[in-house]
Amino acid sequence: MSSVEVTPRTQVKRLPKRAVYDREQINRILDQGVVCHVAFVVDGQPFAIPTGYARGEDTLYIHGSAASRVMRLGSDGIDVCVTVTLIDGFVLARSAFHHSMNYRSVMVLGKARLVTDTDEKRHALHLFTNHIVPGRWEETRQPTEQELKATSVLALAIEEASAKVRTGGPIDDEEDYALPVWAGVVPLKAVYGNPVDDGRVLDGVTPFEVNRLSRRGD
Amino acid sequence: MSSVEVTPRTQVKRLPKRAVYDREQINRILDQGVVCHVAFVVDGQPFAIPTGYARGEDTLYIHGSAASRVMRLGSDGIDVCVTVTLIDGFVLARSAFHHSMNYRSVMVLGKARLVTDTDEKRHALHLFTNHIVPGRWEETRQPTEQELKATSVLALAIEEASAKVRTGGPIDDEEDYALPVWAGVVPLKAVYGNPVDDGRVLDGVTPFEVNRLSRRGD
Q1: CA neighbor of A10 nearest in space, from A160, A156, A166
Q2: Do B204 and A180 touch (CB under 8 A)?
Q3: What pTM did the predictor assign?
Q4: Disulfide: which of A173, A203, B19, B206 matches B12 by Cβ 3.0-4.6 Å?
Q5: What is the mean pLDDT of residues A206-217?
Q6: Domain presence at residue B133
Q7: ipTM at complex level
């Protein structure tokens, strides 16, 4: 279990009891998430763009987004903040003020670089594909050189990173426990529906087994 | 049905066919989301922070976050980008390259202001609470003056806003339809589990009905 550097920028100031710097937990959250939000700045204006991503050991690969357009303008790196957030439940208290959410989120700060090496790009696409569906890369047609060229990938070292986690029930003011109000947690979970084929799947092809997705983030 | 101003900053450059500027659709996505990611800049470093929010007519209220700390340093407004993203499904193609996701997302740009008026703050808390659970505000203890003081709220006009939406199945290259690979969509849905009370709910209090949450975003 390794831990990551805590810098003044990643030190969680608001509600520090919810901060977690442990690297294993950071990896677990990153591996379970589906999309990240990438924040970057253009002419003083911040943007937060949702996009696909995947973790490869100590590197976060981010699927082409507006940020890669910006980077093509000549800079050899761009300051980003990549955030992944999982919502686990609504926390309902007896007072409006103490309502909250259970969640796990990770923030990674640093300078993202544009991936130009073809092998590293292929590696990133491999990770993207299997991040969503374990084993999917191995059963699909691999990218051509043209497709690799057409894909933008950013890479960000997972060095300056922090997690925030809230779990458990509501914490009410002592006198409010006398109120006749229901309080507790409503769990929230992402659930997969029945796969819908696109109408052009060849006869004899095994239907997609949705429980493969239970291995996501393992 | 009104539409919002399309500025060079909100004009979606990548995959413009997925861009939607219609205001009704923007509102629907904002009302269905649970958390937003707020992007802002401190000393040149962008941040993307997940936090609660709610829409009140043409204003987005954002629950206290690091951004409000920054604003207390004296500025009378801060440039933000608030993004709300809903993931609707995994789009599995026959080639790795054409994998995608179905999603709906909204980006709102502008200058956020710190809400200081007590009545507006109470209004925002009302909206936050009922954004998560319709009707919850009316059944819980209302905030005291102290609690209102302890809550930071940012307000952002929903003027410069855009939505991006992808729906439907994978689009494969024509020759790839001959491959014996399953292709289609795996729907993804946020589902509520059974409410878990906190062990201190008074006898006779009606248990929380989880199907109240099906009215979220209506």
Answers
A1: A160
A2: yes
A3: 0.92
A4: B19
A5: 92
A6: yes
A7: 0.91
